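## retry 2 of 3
previous attempt timed out at serialization; input unchanged, resubmitting
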Amino acid sequence: MSGALSGVRVVDCSQMWAGPGTGMYLADHGADVIKVEPLTGDGARVTFTQAPVGGGESRAFLPLNRGKRGLALDIRHPRGRDILRALLRDADVLVHNFRPGVAERLGYDYPSLQALNPRLVYAWITAYGVEGPHAQQPGYDLLFQALSGILARRRSADGPPRPSGVWIADCSAPMELAYGIALALFERARTGRGRMVTTSLLHAALAMQSPDLVQVATAPPGDGPDYATQAMFAPYRCRDGHYLMLVVVQDEQWRGLCRALGRADLAADPAYAGPLDRARASARLAAILESAFAGRDRDEWVRVLAEHDVPSAPVLEREEVFAYPQLAANAMLVETTHPLAGRATMVASPVRLHGSGPIATRPAPLLGEHTEAILRELGYAPSVIQELEEAGVIRCAPARVDRAPGI
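## retry succeeded, writing output
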């Protein structure tokens, strides 16, 4: 079934995580996304944060490049530039994450491509932003967690900052850039002209803290207790050794918690009357709650708290997440079958357009898997395609792919 972006062609020249994630979100809703990568492949194919999967690729590559067609192309070679410009002449969107100055050096800067295709939406994701003292520096997610104040909010008991454990900037920036692309396409429907759209990993890390990262001239001195250190926003170990996460925001939820614990005295104590009171008394409350939650198993506590309308959740391990029934009930996971890695289950697009039906998800492409087909679409004859491959301008996938066991 076609999606909202059916008929939109995206040329994705980005590598690693944040840029390709943008193309993933567009492909999820029907865009024809062509992944352009070097002849040696996107670095994300072999950048491992976990053990590699079948075929020796990073498992992160599989979701971030699902739904795309793969073109292996040397975009620095004069003939490679001709091919890329031929693609961009009729494309709707270009996504790239070149450092500032690289696009100009290669001839893929916005003024040049705007002259080639005035309707092109030119989407550029950078590390630190296009200007400023750090614009030319390489950037990675943990650096932006440091610069944006995220690391300083999470500290070990002995003081050192602790990373969040998830890639905050890398995973949020693609949503923001996809949002910007959607705005530019909407505007283009009125004006007939494309626009340059930018975001950065640093800005994404800042935006993930929008409710908290606020300076107010009239605020009293001191920021008060941080959410991460408050007893009402904390995980607790239960009798079976598993943890639950408690989040008590409102006064009625606090009273419900007291009822669930059988502690009417706490509900009546003025020292815990309001949210700020409870925040200031976090040390005392944490000790009380740690003792109470140690008395029952995790799932029993989750059930009891739900009966009293107290927000809580089990702290699930990675493999437990895939089996959690709420995900299946809302189609939050999607499966693909990759020719080397086999069946892969991953997070589906977090945005559903109801009534449009699901879109079949193409697995992430092999290196150069669709090179020949894409060049044929551009009018290249088979003999020319062969000559381009022999000249090191393109790379085509082998005709036969050894499949993973069982598929």
